[in-house]
Amino acid sequence: MRPPPTRFWWQVAAAAANALLAAVTLVWPDWLELVFHVDPDGGNGSFEWLVVGVTAALALALGVRAVRTWESAAH
C-alpha cells in the first residue's frame, strides 16, 4: 500500500478543524461575540446555529472526501 497523498492530510486537518469549530460553537456559542465583538443575530442565537450547521456539514464532507482519497491511494 502506498502512503496517502498530501491532500489526504490537508482534508483530514480541515475536517478536524471544522468539527472542532462546530463543537466549540455548540458548547460555547458566545465565543463569536467575544472574539469578533459583533452580534449579527441580535442575540437570538440563529447565527451560532448557522455556524454549527455549516461547519458540521463541511467537516462531514471533508471527512468523506478524505476517505475517498485514502481509498483511491490504496489502489
Written description of the protein model:
With 75 residues, this protein is mainly alpha-helical. The chain has one domain (6-74). The chain is built from three helices and no strands. Helix 1 (6-27) packs antiparallel against helix 3 (46-74). It is elongated and about 50 Å long.
Give the arrangement of secondary structure elements.
Elements: H1 6-27, H2 31-36, H3 46-74
Helix pairs in contact: 1-3
Sum this structure up briefly.
With 75 residues, this protein is mainly α.
> Percentage of helical residues?
over 70%
* % residues in beta strands: under 5%
Q: Briefly note the structural class of the backbone.
A: mainly alpha
Q: Give the radius of gyration.
A: 16 Å
The mean pLDDT is: 94
Number of domains: 1
Low-confidence stretches: none
Largest sheet: none
Number of strands: 0
Write down the secondary-structure element order.
HHH
The total count of helices amounts to 3
- Quaternary state of this entry equals single chain
Q: State the shape.
A: elongated
- N/C terminus separation: 8 Å
Short key terms for the protein model shown above:
75 residues, mainly alpha, 76% helix
